[in-house]
Amino acid sequence: MSNTRSRGENVSPANEQVTASDARRSVAALLERGRTMTTPVLRAAVDRLAPPMNTVAAYHFGWIDATGRPADGSGGKAVRPALALLSAEVAGAEPEVGIPGAVAVELVHNFSLLHDDLMDGDEQRRHRDTVWKVHGPAQAILVGDALFALANELLLEQGTTDGGRATQRLTVATRKLIDGQAQDISFEHRERVTVEECLEMEGNKTGALIACACSIGAVLGGADDATADALERYGYHLGLAFQAVDDLLGIWGEPSVTGKQTWSDLRQRKKSLPVVAALAAEGPAAERLGELLAADAKNTEIGEFSEEEFANRAALIEEAGGREWTSQEARRQHATALEALNGVYMPEETRRNLLALADFVVVREK
Amino acid sequence: MSNTRSRGENVSPANEQVTASDARRSVAALLERGRTMTTPVLRAAVDRLAPPMNTVAAYHFGWIDATGRPADGSGGKAVRPALALLSAEVAGAEPEVGIPGAVAVELVHNFSLLHDDLMDGDEQRRHRDTVWKVHGPAQAILVGDALFALANELLLEQGTTDGGRATQRLTVATRKLIDGQAQDISFEHRERVTVEECLEMEGNKTGALIACACSIGAVLGGADDATADALERYGYHLGLAFQAVDDLLGIWGEPSVTGKQTWSDLRQRKKSLPVVAALAAEGPAAERLGELLAADAKNTEIGEFSEEEFANRAALIEEAGGREWTSQEARRQHATALEALNGVYMPEETRRNLLALADFVVVREK
């Protein structure tokens, strides 16, 4: 895939010689750095919540189990915090400068997970029961609200102009994220959704917040709006690549790795990319799939389907080309993301790290 | 009550001669001004929401009915917008300067109503079915989230330092509001709640946002933090007075006027001020009430109680002194609110209007 990497002018050809295992090590280190540097600040922020919200949030983040005992859940892949710290480095600032942004983005991301899991009726996340299952719907709503407010509070209490700019970008991203969830819900009640509509929804639901993670550190580090906008473009397309991979994992992912149920997205009748791409195709597999899904839409008992019935739908999606198209789309979005970095001046190592993270996003298995 | 009004030094004694009917007219005009000046901006903000959230929000605000036809619902008393515009005048600015603040506070207030109605299972608000009843729980969550985000968006897109300061105050108020709702929910599962705990909860749930309404216009008008803090104190205690009256109306209010069910708060086992004050009293009525409520707590069928059973509980609360204590508390908070204005320099007419609004809050019937 190295031919898709058209790097900035300040990158010398010698730096293209990064081996795959170097890159893997580099990504693991970046994710670990993001987690290590932001978790204490995130925990301190969550500690501000009044009981029982602090406990419910700690359960959600995987810091305690349902009985309140300490647990060592990682709270997810932490791609966003890693990106926010790199983003500060793009502006020539220390990664520390990005921490409030990293934490704020992580708080908004988890606000959306808490509410989405409840709205979608999802019972499992990260191999554990979701908050509404364990603590009830009211706590899922309330703690989600509290995390959202906390995100703005953290950024604004910096008391700086850049803190205000960062909050504004985060707010716009959050509104898009909510728009995306609204579109996603509405798709479940519609028989047909176009590929373009699906990409727009995913751009809102996933792209916008990853875009914000990629610019927020730079904004806090004093970058100008043009730089922040270019970083947002990188993040937006990275987010779409991320989501395309997520859509593949939502159907063909290994449950023991992803922490979700088998055929998770099919169970929820998600009109994800592989599904809409397959339905948009021509030929007998697309036709048969269309008939089956139209019948499913009238059937409220989809939860009672056998594994074979789901496997059959997944096979038809693949046969109609939905799986392959989505893989290619992930690669296309990956390439567009990298292009957005071309005109942005940044330290050599930061650029290498942003490229490595982009590569990771499209090859991950969970 | 005029002896509780120790006004600022720049108010001449001649201005004390305001008759009751003048004051009523003045309050009606202030509320009308708040509604007229803010509604177009509020509607334009709601129009930004993607479908179907714009429609769901329009239903919530009373602009359309459940079938989508235009309706003329007022969307509530609009005390907060009136206060926010007066707040701008305190800083010597035109009331228009307070509009983004008024709209932002109204958006946060309605975000909390949408979520609280769902969490509390309330089926009616302002004489109409609540959003979750009509459009389902997911839309109530989603549109609430969207209104919260929109509030910050409106304030931050001003792009001014004062817009950032206003957003920070609103964010802190929103976090308190969420804390208050968390406390309120937790009280329903507890047998005993002290009067102090109840006042703390109500200060968070109602006081904090009214406090913000009272300072946000001044902040947008460039007032210093000391002035904004004094206005928040006025608003905080005004909010507690408001809530004490609300608690009285929640038990003894006339359903055809309040738009709520009879004995609304008793049906929901709310540990509101009259209840906790009655339980804290001594004597046979308080004792009998305690026994009844303890038995109710074990009984999940409280919704099936007869009108007589609710009337009996209400009578015991009154006999134990809970009704009278709450009335007095409303007057105490009203007096403390007015005291907070003493040291604040402001135009004569603005002070008169803030006093008139405070009086209205404690005498209203809905």
TrEMBL record, chains A, B:
InterPro entries: Isoprenoid_synthase_dom_sf (IPR008949), Polyprenyl_synt (IPR000092), Polyprenyl_synt_CS (IPR033749). The keyword Metal-binding applies. Keywords: Magnesium, Metal-binding, Transferase. It comes from the Bacteria. Residues 1-23 are annotated as: Disordered. Pfam families: polyprenyl_synt. SUPFAM superfamilies: Terpenoid synthases (SSF48576). The keyword Metal-binding applies. CDD domains: Trans_IPPS_HT. Belongs to the FPP/GGPP synthase family. This is Polyprenyl synthetase family protein. It comes from Streptomyces humicola. The lineage of its organism: Bacteria, Bacillati, Actinomycetota, Actinomycetes, Kitasatosporales.
